[in-house]
Amino acid sequence: MPRVLIATTDLDVLDDVPVDDDDRVMADALAAVGTDVQVVTWDDPAVDWSGADAVVLRSVRHDPQRRDELVDWAGRVGGVTQLFPDADVVRWNTHTSYLLELEDRGAPIVPTAWLAAGDRVSLADLAADRGWDAVVAKPAVGAGRVGIVVARDPAAEEEAFTELLAHHDVLVQPFLERVGDLGELSVVCIDGRCSHAVRKVPAAGDWRVRVAFGATHEHVEPDLATARLAEWIVAATEAEPLFARVDLLPAPDGTWQLLEVDLVDPGLHLAGAPGSAERLAVALRARLGGAGAA
Question: φ and ψ at 272, to 5 degrees?
Fold first, then answer.
């Protein structure tokens, strides 16, 4: 019986609210296909990673200041067992400059201005040059919506933006008002194939799509074109991930634009998608070459 460790974060020490039960649901599904599975804390020095046949990363990026530590940890663990995703993917996908590569490969990303920490840039001037009335500025290494500056009047947010840019690589994007009405679509792919999708709509007057801020999450069936777009984006990462979540926003013309593709610790919304956890468990067992992979 293969032994699998699910590496997560001790949520008890976070000033945060978990939004799903992915770790528990995944563990139950793995156990059901003949796997010895245990959920552990990724930075627990007592864990013997070499004793596992595989380690699966889950909720591990809650503290952006520990990104380098996480990448180093992934390199060490990947040296003694199979790690999903591997250290190269963790390094690549935890800095949103990966979107530049996906754009070069043809992905329809949200229009983005890229700035390096320490650059001296006026947010109002940048927005005017791009023709953006309202913008969103966010750190290139981040978690959730921490550190984001939303500027419906860019000139009024110069101080907050300057402070953000002084310490972080930053990406600036137009604020898409349609998100308030249509929401954000998260498409979950397992082994490169579309599994299910969740429509996330913020509370009235808000822009955040987390349940903790009053947003609603609804499982929906993506149309074929949307599912194929998400699968193409996952393939374009060239990472062949075990799981991925592709976040899409509605463009003014009604097409989808890529906001993010999370290969490291995405919320997978397994609990509300019948059969999804089982598909994930079977996909992992197949990669380990074990029974239950039919």
Answer: -100, 10
Of 174, 184, 180, 175, whose CA–CA distance to 249 is shortest? 184
The helix, strand and coil proportions of the chain, stated in percent and rounded to the nearest 5, come to 35, 25, 40
CA–CA distance, 72 with 81 (Å, rounded to integer): 15
What DSSP state is assigned to residue 109? Answer: B
Would you call 205 helix, strand, or coil by DSSP? coil
CA pair distance 141, 135, nearest whole angstrom: 18
DSSP label at residue 114: E
Q: Which amino acid is at 216?
A: T
Residue that has been written with the tokens 């498409």 in this structure: 187
Q: Which pLDDT value is given to residue 61?
A: 66
Residue identified by tokens 């864990």 is 47
User: Residue holding tokens 């046949």?
Assistant: 53
In the numeric block, the tokens 């009053």 are attached to 214
Record the pTM: 0.90
Cβ 177 vs Cβ 152: under 8 Å = no
CB contact at 8 A, 173 and 135: yes
Return the structure tokens found at 231: 């699968």
Q: Which residues, at least 6 apart from 84, have a Cβ–Cβ distance to it below 8 Å?
A: 54, 55, 56, 57, 241, 242, 284, 287
Mean pLDDT by 10 residues, the chain (294 residues): 89 41 87 93 94 92 81 97 97 95 97 96 97 94 74 95 94 82 90 96 77 82 97 98 96 90 93 94 90 44
pLDDT of residue 11: 53
Cα separation, 118 vs 6, in Å, equals: 37
- Please name each of the domains of the chain with its CATH number: 3-94+275-288 (3.40.50), 98-108+178-262 (3.30.470.20), 113-174 (3.30.1490)
